[in-house]
Amino acid sequence: MLRLGIDLGGTKIEIIAFDDDGRTLDRRRVATPQGDYAATLAAVAGLVEALESGQGRRGTVGVGMPGTLSRASGLVKNANSTCLIGRPLRDDLQRLLGREVRLANDANCFALSEAVDGAAAGAAVVFGVIVGTGVGGGIVVHGQVLDGPNGIAGEWGHNPLPLPAGAELPLPACYCGRAGCIETYLSGPGMARDHARAGGATLTAEALVAAAASGDAACEATLQRYEQRLARALAGVVNLLDPDVIVLGGGLSNLDRLYASVPRLWLPHVFSDRVETRLVKAAHGDSSGVRGAAWLWPA
User: Fold this and answer.
1) Which among 134, 136, 113, 135 has a CA at the least distance from the CA of 126?
2) Which of these, 276, 279, 277, 274, lies nearest to 260 by C-alpha position?
3) What residues does 279 pair with on adjacent strands?
4) Long-range contacts: 205-212, Cβ < 8 Å, 24+?
5) What torsion, rounded to 10 degrees, do the Cα atoms 289, 52, 44, 144 define?
6) In sequence order, which ranges of the chain are alpha helices (DSSP H)?
């Protein structure tokens, strides 16, 4: 059976094809058409057509998406790719592709991939975090994704940042209509906004990280603020879920200093005399989401 997984991200759309044995047959990616729902649908359909043409057969299709589908309406909700909100994404993709399409939150797909054979393989309770264009979370317990009756289990990025003070105030507005969400501080754009708000130049998160590594004091201060906030936010996860492993994915997960600094910084905020939870980088990098999407269809 040919299984196709699609990661519908804020900056890229990636597709992967697996065979019956779970071997990768092909993979491709294109830039996400910004703010254009129709073009996004066309991009997904084009990727499916290209891979199936190359393999000479049709496959099952799983899609990891930002946000989730409303249980009441079937329309997209809670997506930081706001052009998807209120759209019948599953119905439209099924019409374009002429088959059933399975969709799941991208962070759930990411967490599943890492829990099955990634950085958290063998762990009983896994919390997967995506820190990139947005901030998402997914929970896997004994190899099963927790979704919840509202379809929002693990939506960590839209909880308030704990203990905001000083330069963290006033609370920044979030696209979701609230203010002070974790995502507004810990996404890549959030890091860039924080740097500018502190009087720094307008830089991308990638440029900030590079400048800090080169000795730029202002950029280093921005990264230290980021680490403190990430530690406080993840401490809340540890207190509530007590996971064996927290896996980081997304562009900011490549900041290697996080894996030493954040566990040290979260200690004062965790309600325990010791913290056994491990913070690790995703084994499959930015491919975890697309791999997990393919596994929405069993072998």
Assistant:
1) 113
2) 279
3) 246
4) 205/251, 205/252, 206/251, 209/255
5) -30
6) 37-55, 89-97, 106-117, 182-186, 188-197, 205-213, 217-241, 258-266, 288-294
Distances (CA, A) of 254 to 131, 206, 286: 10, 10, 10
Contact present, 282 and 166 (Cβ < 8 Å): no
For the purposes of burial, counting CB atoms within 10 Å of the CB of 272, is it exposed (0-12), middle (13-18) or buried (19 or more)? exposed
pLDDT tens digits, the chain, 299 residues: what are they? 899 999 998 888 999 999 888 889 999 999 999 999 999 999 999 999 999 999 999 999 999 998 899 999 999 999 888 999 999 999 999 999 999 999 999 999 999 999 988 999 999 999 999 998 889 999 999 988 998 999 899 999 999 999 999 999 999 999 899 999 999 999 999 999 999 999 999 999 999 999 999 999 999 999 999 999 999 999 999 999 999 999 999 999 999 999 999 999 999 999 999 999 999 999 998 889 999 999 888 76
Q: Give the residue among 159, 158, 163, 162 at the shortest CA–CA distance from 175.
A: 158
Residues 6+ apart with CB under 8 A from 289: 7, 9, 14, 64, 106, 107, 109, 110, 113, 130, 249
Q: Which amino acid is at 246?
A: I
Instruction: Find the helix or strand (DSSP H, E) in which 286 lies.
Output: none
User: Comparing C-alpha atoms, which of 168, 39, 156, 44 is closest to residue 107?
Assistant: 156
- Candidates 15, 23, 18; CA nearest to 43 is 15
In DSSP terms, 14 is beta-bridged to 7, 29
Q: What letter would DSSP give residue 181?
A: B
Angle between helices 188-197 and 205-213 (to 10 degrees): 70
C-alpha dihedral over 285, 290, 291, 294, to 10 degrees?
180
